[in-house]
């Protein structure tokens, strides 16, 4: 099947002619993974290998002695991991050297290579050399749970070894202990990294313990058998992310409003955030309210809210009713945002997204400027319409947000997993029965993600609101590897949990857009947490100064 790209760029085949989308350039984009022009890095890597063999010979030995389910070379894995670190060591990295305004932060090197005494877990899964191909990938990834699990248990067993490593305590840890500012430097790119199986620290909460989860996302309750999808930690390449701490975060949110604005993926992330923080709030002092476009989690004793505001295109559209919106003809008013935006004004944190509703058709219907009603519209190429809408949005942010009070984030696109042949599982049906992330996969995956939209959003958030910093949060690349994380057939449809018959027909019923919770959106929120806690907060600073 040579046209996986065609189906992918439209949802459930709804958009005729979607194939003319970005994937017509498949050939052009299939070029070699970024490999060229790295000679100096490679040389530095070799030096670093020598250095590391001297320093960490013991670790390498212990890693190479681990049993592997198959012949993926542990030595090669080390070489790959080490040369990453080598690059880091060879180039003076700004993220290592830079510090926050308090001058207290530094970055620790990767921990997945060297298990730290404080965090008793993970070792990276073996990577291959990037030559993994669809067809081989399936067999390789399906054996990985055993491998992952075996590797995860290893460091815990070898307790004596850990005791010998005091030199690996790092300055970053002191920062955490001091409690002034947590997190990682802004310059550290959190989107580059890998998924590490970590069943000691994950999930961050239990599905059955968060009563605020809706049955759309409670996959285990809805019959899913495997739960490893809850146990993957995201390890950025160049720094560490602090573990989400509900108490610390709720203190930061005291007397504040935290608001997600966007489509159902942002609601998915809202549910995750509520579950992440709710354990810090006493049982009778928290509740959720629904009104019109808005769902609000109230943390009564903190005078704080975590809210979700429904506006799938950010600007006004004919699909803005959160309940009655399955309208085949979606029409956007690209210049009109005030009716929604007046509800965002007093938020202290604003987290926006808009993507999935753009993916049904190649062209979008835009209401004509000055048009009398929705009938008065024109068709505009998707990417141009997206640019227009985001410009309107960024203009509003620029003119209406007080950057001294409000932090603004834009979440990049949440990817879909509809075409298993793309990740080398020709017998798969959408994302059904996927139980492992693509841990060994290097380079791009052709899932139908519209990277042109990604670039537009990235550009606009950077440039179109000069008065107000907008943090563009790249969740796309990391989430593309999480084919295992979707709700699939363990979800609801029109308010009802899928029947056994429907569950048996994933080709029709699997939802490969939304995510199980606990799961991938918890990591997105950990990125937000990392960014927010990295920045000084006036109230917190005053407290700790005492
Ligand atoms: C992690 O997984 C391994 C392998 O399944 C298991 O032996 C171990 O008990 C698990 N640890 C935790 C904390 O669940
Ligand atoms: C509660 O929070 C709001 C902002 O969300 C603030 O305006 C108000 O003053 C707070 N109330 C108290 C009693 O601190
Ligand atoms: C993003 O901005 C860069 C530099 O300003 C520009 O070269 C590029 O064409 C822009 N891309 C898009 C998709 O707008």
From TrEMBL:
Which Pfam families does this chain map to?
A: PC-Esterase, PMR5N
| Spans annotated as Disordered | 85-147
Any one Gene Ontology MF annotation carried by this entry is: xylan O-acetyltransferase activity
Q: Gene Ontology cellular component?
A: Golgi membrane
Annotated GO biological process: xylan biosynthetic process
Keywords carried by this UniProt record: Disulfide bond, Glycoprotein, Golgi apparatus, Membrane, Signal-anchor, Transferase, Transmembrane, Transmembrane helix
Q: List the transmembrane segments.
A: 39-57
The annotated regions of Basic and acidic residues compositional bias extend over 126-135
Record's signal peptide:
none
Where is this chain's protein located in or outside the cell? Golgi apparatus membrane
Question: Does the keyword Acyltransferase feature in the UniProt annotation?
Answer: no
In this chain the Trichome birefringence-like N-terminal domain maps to: 186-240
> How does the record classify its membrane topology?
Single-pass type II membrane protein
InterPro entries per record: TBL, TBL_C, TBL_N
Q: Which residues form the Trichome birefringence-like C-terminal domain?
A: 241-530
User: Which PANTHER family does the entry mention?
Assistant: PROTEIN TRICHOME BIREFRINGENCE-LIKE 9-RELATED (PTHR32285), XYLAN O-ACETYLTRANSFERASE 1 (PTHR32285:SF10)
Identify its protein family. Answer: Belongs to the PC-esterase family. TBL subfamily.
This protein is called Trichome birefringence-like N-terminal domain-containing protein
Q: Which species expresses this protein natively?
A: Triticum urartu
This chain is encoded by the gene named: LOC125545196
């Amino acid at each position: 099947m040579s046209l996986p790209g065609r189906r992918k760029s439209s949802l459930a085949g709804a958009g005729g002619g979607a194939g003319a989308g970005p994937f017509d350039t498949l050939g052009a984009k299939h070029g070699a993974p970024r490999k060229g022009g790295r000679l100096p890095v490679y040389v530095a890597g070799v030096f670093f290998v020598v250095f590391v063999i001297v320093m960490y010979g013991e670790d390498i030995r212990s890693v190479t002695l681990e049993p592997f389910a198959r012949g993926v070379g542990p030595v090669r894995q080390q070489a790959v991991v080490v040369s990453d670190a080598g690059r880091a060591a060879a180039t003076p990295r700004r993220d290592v050297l830079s510090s926050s305004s308090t001058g207290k932060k530094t970055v620790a090197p990767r921990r997945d290579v060297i298990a730290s005494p404080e965090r008793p877990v993970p070792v990276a899964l073996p990577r291959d050399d990037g030559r993994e191909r669809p067809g081989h990938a399936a067999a390789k990834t399906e054996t990985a749970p055993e491998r992952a699990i075996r590797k995860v248990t290893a460091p815990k067993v070898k307790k004596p070894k850990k005791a010998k490593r005091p030199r690996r305590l790092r300055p970053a840890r002191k920062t955490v202990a001091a409690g002034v500012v947590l997190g990682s430097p802004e310059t550290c790119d959190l989107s580059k990294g890998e998924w590490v199986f970590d069943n000691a620290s994950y999930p961050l909460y239990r599905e059955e313990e968060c009563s605020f989860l809706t049955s759309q996302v409670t996959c285990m309750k809805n019959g899913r058998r495997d739960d490893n999808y809850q146990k993957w930690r995201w390890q950025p390449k160049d720094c560490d992310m602090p573990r989400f701490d509900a108490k610390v975060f709720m203190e930061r949110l005291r007397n504040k409003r935290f608001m997600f604005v966007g489509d159902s993926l942002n609601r998915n992330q809202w549910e995750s955030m509520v579950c992440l923080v709710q354990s810090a709030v006493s049982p009778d002092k928290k509740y959720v309210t629904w009104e019109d476009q808005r769902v609000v989690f109230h943390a009564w004793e903190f005078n704080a809210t975590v809210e979700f505001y429904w506006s799938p295109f950010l600007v006004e559209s004919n699909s803005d009713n959160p309940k009655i919106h399955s309208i085949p003809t979606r029409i956007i008013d690209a210049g009109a945002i005030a009716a929604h935006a007046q509800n965002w004004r007093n938020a202290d944190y604003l987290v926006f997204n808009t993507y999935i509703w753009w993916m049904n058709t190649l062209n979008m219907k835009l209401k004509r400027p000055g048009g009398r009603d929705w009938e008065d519209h024109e068709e505009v190429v998707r990417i141009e319409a997206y640019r227009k809408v985001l410009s309107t949005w960024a203009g509003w942010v620029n003119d209406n947000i007080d950057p001294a009070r409000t932090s603004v984030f834009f979440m990049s696109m949440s990817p879909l997993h509809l075409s298993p042949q793309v990740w080398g599982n020709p017998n798969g049906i959408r994302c059904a029965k996927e139980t492992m992330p693509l841990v060994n996969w290097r380079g791009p995956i052709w899932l139908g993600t519209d990277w042109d939209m990604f670039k537009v959003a990235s550009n606009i958030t950077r440039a179109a609101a000069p008065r107000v910093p907008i943090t563009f949060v790249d969740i796309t690349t990391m989430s593309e590897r999480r084919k295992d994380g979707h709700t699939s057939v363990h979800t609801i449809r029109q308010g009802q949990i899928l029947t056994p018959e429907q569950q048996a027909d994933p080709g029709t019923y699997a939802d490969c857009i939304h995510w199980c919770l606990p799961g991938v959106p918890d990591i997105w929120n950990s990125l937000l947490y990392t960014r927010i806690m990295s920045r000084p907060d006036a109230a917190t600073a005053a407290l700790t100064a005492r």
